[in-house]
Amino acid sequence: DALPISNAAKPEETLAWLDGAVAALPEIEPTALSIQNEIGGQSIAFQRAMDDLAKAWAKVAEHPTASLQRQLWSRLLSLVYGRDIEQDALWFQHTYLVIVAKAIAAHVLGVNATNPESILSGRDFKNARVFGAVESDFFDWILLAPGGPELVTKIALHAGRFKWSTAQADVLKVVYESLIDRAERHGLGEYYTPDWLAAKIVRRAIDNPVEARVLDPACGSGTFLFHAVRRFLRESEDA
Questions:
Q1: Nearest to 140 by CA among 69, 73, 47
Q2: pTM for this predicted structure
Q3: Per-residue pLDDT tens digits for 14-44
Q4: How many other C-beta atoms are found inside a 10 Å radius of the C-beta of residue 194?
Q5: Which of 41, 109, 152, 227 could make a disulfide contact with 179, Cβ separation 3.0–4.6 Å?
Q6: Dihedrals φ, ψ of 7, to 5°?
Q7: Which CA distances in Å does 49 have to 18, 75, 78, 141, 218?
Q8: Residue ranges in 44-134 assigned as alpha helix (H)
Q9: In whole angstroms, what is the distance from residue 232 CA to residue 166 CA?
Q10: Cα angle, residue 209 at apex, residues 208 and 212 outer, rounded to 5°
């Protein structure tokens, strides 16, 4: 993997990229830059994971369960986007994104991040009476592959190096935007609301956050819900 051309005016970018390669920092603030360089589309972790996922899929592509999971994934994407979506790279990107998202959730809840089955199934969330947040899905195919559980654990541990409780923005949006090309996202009709705008709309729409129930019927990565929860927590502390 080649080191990107360094910019003397922006040394923090080179340092962030280097940390993604050697994992030097024990705890990382979850900024857009650090997320992109540690687990985003340009990171060493992502490039290695894509190679490992491709090798794992080659071993289970003919497995009845794994094959069915991919067919269902492809069929749903076709319904959403109005055209056939059948790309190995996108299948692996979505698998990686889901593992990272579930690992973040596990770390925030304090779930043991070394149990790959628990991370992907959301079993510990159910035990904590939190339903619908993390569940089994198409991307559990990785657990069927030789070395797959170990790969889930490796990705989860890398994602766990962040101090996610201090996040000031929708981190899943940052990861997704760094994985999927901008032109491709817009071609599929995907546009993300900036965090500053989502926060402003939440302030305007929710006048009693401690008592209100909030629904986002078009929830993608959860930007509006993220800011609604943050507002609820602030108002609850003040009360």
A1: 69
A2: 0.79
A3: 555 454 445 555 688 888 888 888 998 889 9
A4: 12
A5: 41
A6: -115, 115
A7: 17, 25, 25, 15, 30
A8: 44-60, 64-81, 88-109, 116-121, 123-127
A9: 16
A10: 80
